[in-house]
Inverse folding.
């Protein structure tokens, strides 16, 4: 049975009768990196604020770790919402210490371990107010990581970061997911970045969750294909079948279309050339996931 | 709850303002005693009686005067401590970890009480030292010691009543600058301006109106109404008068003061917790 870390049912938030989040049903599986995407003002942050307990829903229900005891669920959750929430007059170490004490962890070494994970162990007693935005963001992640949360909620964690800061945060999230098995809910309007880490997406538009889709389902929906024109189609067919296990293909003369393994496009090209097959033309069709998601963000589900 | 209180103390002890405000409160308390004594001396000199001047500002007496310097600095620090959690956004780190909002409020309340006690003690110590330098320790025995303890306790109660209101405003306003500004305005102007206006309105308009209605005036009599009696601020000075402990004449004031302070503590805390629980955190 699928284990869900978060399930919301008709989660709604209204301000002066206007629904900014409207009957949102999110399901996040354990171990997923779930990307909540939508334009600015779509309702991402409000949804996350309700999940985190910062805003109360007008209506709807939710469960965390399969239970409606939300306080207990939130105690296993680390959160960053919008700007990094840190004490500027304290050092990185002291900021993490506040959270360690709050969580009642007696092992003081955990502070150094966490600072090491986020790459802030060498900043010494420098006050957090003197940190760059990237450092502040990493410190906020460190604070969220105290007490080994099983679920990380990150709202726009790469906002305002420079390219190296974005890469650092992205690698850190991937590391946490792969090594510690942490489930991550991450919201961003920078789709390209989100697509590098997420394996499941919730597309939110005008407060409504228009679609929830996994990478596999997206691949199915998009049906990426590749077309080749080669001098030896039979030989090419054999390469596709034997080296890449491709069976779903169409052949007409020198023209071949494959309907699977399109993500190995470059590898296929190399193998064909190594087998002395001359490629006259090759084209990828329908492989643009980003375009697919943007379309959903803008138009909703057709 | 204990962990929350511990983390709040950790934050407090790392705030420079905690030490700066404490030092300033002590300096102001000491300077206050020195200034009052100098003014007294100057008045004697004005009438050519400087030889007859005997300073009343002994160490013991100075304590009852000096502790009033604490209020302004407690107000500033409590406002900063509470509102900065919202300003820095760090309140989100606490709430999103599943900790109850009432617990968060009460933890801050304990800090408020602690800061009130520490600053009052600091001011008492500073004014005692300055007083001792000016006129010696003064009469000191077991009774005086117990009186001092009672005065300290009563003053602290009135201080906590005032600070309960300021903490409540911190949770409602959620901006450091506005909270400090509002609380200082309440601290400085409310007793002199607003309460006097209320007194004027009640005594000049409401009292005659009530008196003119027979059935109402038979059970409600408004005579020389003073709203100061129903606001904890005046009790900061009333409670530092040793006579309030021993003279029967002052017993109604003591009783009324105790009730007013307790009512304000309960009301301000209830309103503060209620609004904090009901409002979303941005």
């Amino acid at each position: 049975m699928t284990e869900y870390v978060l399930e919301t049912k008709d989660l709604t938030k209204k301000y002066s009768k206007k629904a900014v989040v409207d009957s949102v049903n999110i399901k996040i599986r354990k171990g997923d990196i779930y990307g909540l995407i939508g334009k600015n003002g779509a309702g991402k942050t409000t949804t996350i604020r309700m999940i985190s307990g910062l805003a109360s829903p007008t209506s709807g229900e939710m469960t965390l770790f399969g239970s409606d005891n939300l306080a207990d669920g939130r105690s296993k959750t680390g959160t960053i919402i919008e700007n990094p929430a840190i004490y500027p007059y304290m050092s990185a170490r002291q900021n993490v210490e506040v959270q360690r004490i709050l969580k009642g962890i007696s092992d003081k070494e955990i502070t150094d371990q966490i600072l090491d994970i986020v790459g802030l162990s060498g900043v010494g007693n420098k006050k957090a107010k003197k940190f760059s935005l990237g450092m502040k963001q990493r410190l906020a992640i460190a604070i969220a990581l105290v007490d080994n949360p099983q679920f990380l909620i990150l709202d726009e964690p790469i906002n305002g970061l420079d390219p190296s800061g974005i890469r650092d945060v992205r690698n850190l999230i991937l590391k946490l997911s792969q090594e510690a098995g942490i489930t991550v809910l991450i919201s961003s309007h920078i789709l390209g970045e989100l697509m590098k880490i997420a394996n499941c997406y919730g597309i939110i538009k005008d407060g409504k969750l228009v679609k929830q889709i996994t990478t596999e389902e997206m691949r199915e929906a998009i049906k990426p294909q590749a077309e080749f024109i080669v001098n030896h189609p039979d030989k090419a067919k054999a390469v596709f079948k034997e080296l890449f296990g491709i069976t779903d293909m169409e052949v007409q003369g020198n023209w071949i279309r494959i309907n699977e393994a399109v993500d190995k496009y470059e590898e296929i090209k190399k193998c064909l050339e190594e087998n002395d097959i001359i490629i006259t033309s090759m084209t990828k069709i329908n492989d643009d996931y980003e375009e697919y998601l943007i379309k959903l963000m803008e138009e909703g589900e057709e | 709850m204990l962990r929350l209180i511990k983390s709040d103390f950790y934050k407090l002890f790392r705030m420079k303002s905690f030490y700066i405000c404490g030092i300033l409160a002590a300096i102001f308390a000491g300077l206050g005693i020195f200034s009052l004594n100098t003014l007294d001396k100057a008045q004697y000199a004005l009438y050519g009686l400087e030889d007859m001047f005997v300073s009343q500002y002994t160490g013991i007496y100075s304590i009852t005067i000096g502790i009033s310097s604490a209020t302004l600095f407690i107000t500033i620090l409590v406002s900063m401590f509470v509102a900065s959690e919202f300003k820095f956004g760090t309140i989100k780190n606490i709430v999103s970890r599943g900790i109850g909002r009432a617990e968060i409020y009460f933890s801050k309340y304990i800090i408020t009480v602690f800061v009130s006690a520490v600053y009052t003690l600091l001011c008492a110590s500073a004014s005692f030292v300055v007083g001792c330098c000016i006129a010696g320790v003064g009469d000191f025995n077991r009774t005086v010691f117990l009186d001092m303890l009672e005065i300290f306790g009563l003053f602290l109660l009135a201080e906590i009543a005032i600070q309960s209101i300021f903490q409540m405003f911190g949770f409602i306003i959620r901006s450091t600058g506005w909270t400090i500004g509002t609380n200082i305005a309440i601290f400085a102007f409310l007793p002199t301006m607003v309460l006097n206006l209320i007194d004027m309105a009640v005594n000049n308009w409401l009292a005659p109106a009530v008196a003119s209605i027979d059935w109402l005036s038979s059970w409600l009599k408004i005579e020389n109404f003073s709203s100061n009696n129903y606001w904890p601020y005046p009790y900061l000075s009333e409670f530092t008068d040793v006579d309030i402990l021993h003279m029967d004449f002052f017993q109604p004031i003591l009783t009324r003061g105790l009730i007013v302070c307790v009512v304000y503590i309960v009301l301000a805390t209830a309103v503060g917790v209620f609004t904090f629980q009901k409002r979303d955190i941005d």
Notes: The domain at 4-218 of chain A is CATH 3.40.50.300 (Rossmann fold). The first strand of chain A starts at residue 4 and ends at 15.
